[in-house]
Amino acid sequence: MDAHLGLPILVGLIGVALAFDFLNGLHDAANSIATIVSTRVLRPQYAVFWAAFFNFVAFTVFGLHVAQTIGTGIIDPAIVDAQVIFAALVGAIVWNLVTWAAGIPSSSSHALIGGLVGAGIAKAGISAAVWSGLSKTILAIVLSPFVGLVLAMILVAIVSWASVRSTPFAVDRAFRILQFASASLYSLGHGGNDAQKTMGIIAVLLYSQGHLGGDFTVPFWVVLSCQTAMALGTLLGGWRIVRTMGLRITKLNPMQGFCAETGGAITLFLATFLGVPVSTTHTITGAIVGVGAARRASAVRWNVAGSIVYAWIFTIPASAIVSAATFWLVSVLRH
């Protein structure tokens, strides 16, 4: 561990971590608001304020289990130093910017995990990885969109049965109101799971420098800083990705939007309480595909969904490669 890191460098690294958190909010704002915007329940400029508020207050609802997993369950905390954290963040930020520019809803979470793995292995070899935590995360790559899809399909079936005697106008009006609740829950789950990942990064950096004593904890100022950075990123929004998530995968009505958001929110709540750093992007995409497929399989534009899946597959290795290259470049420059 680099026990003699200067204060300016430490503050600078925390600033880079918060910049990643801001970009996470910018990149993943679409996850929170895509359905409520595409169903025209809220205009985009109002939807981002709605999402940002619930992103911010999420820390009052959830524990810090995900931050614990990121801080101690992806790579060995003993090998963490300033160079590892810097390289991990660069790998994640570069991949986020590439996919944001292309309008591809990839996972900021898995970009960060890939960055940590790439930098850790570049420093200490394959033994740097904590395989128990990594295997849990990789399993979640498969399970989170599947769970979101299944829950959304079940909700569509339940809601359709419950609404069978209502007029289309009454159903549409009711679910326009209910979508405010489902979008709030999803944004809460998004803020609870995603902001904790940056909390874990900052906390393990502070721990590696001896600023947390002998026990790994997440200081309250770190919690507030990360929630604020994510909420500010969400305020700026990611409109390219909103279009892909809310309009290109399948057309949604308010009832379907409610089912997608609720299915995604349930998945995120479960994962966050269990301490699993899942992808909010994967979760809501699975849920949106689920509501489209519940109508009919041809309602889903499978070519768009397929391109998103390819982005998922490449996210961890791509960010890991950028991170490892950054680590080696910094090593060369330092010597």
Automatic annotation (TrEMBL):
UniProt KW Membrane keyword: yes
Top-rank lineage group of the source organism: Bacteria
Compartmental location: Membrane
Gene Ontology CC annotation, any one: membrane
Main location: membrane
Residues passing through the membrane, by range: 47-67, 79-98, 110-131, 138-162, 220-242, 263-289, 309-330
GO molecular function terms attached to this record: phosphate transmembrane transporter activity
GO biological process: one example: phosphate ion transmembrane transport
Pfam families: PHO4
Protein's membrane topology: Multi-pass membrane protein
Keyword annotations from UniProtKB, A to Z: Membrane, Transmembrane, Transmembrane helix, Transport
Cited InterPro entries: Phos_transporter (IPR001204)
Name used for this protein in its record: Low-affinity phosphate transport protein
Organism: Bradyrhizobium oligotrophicum S58
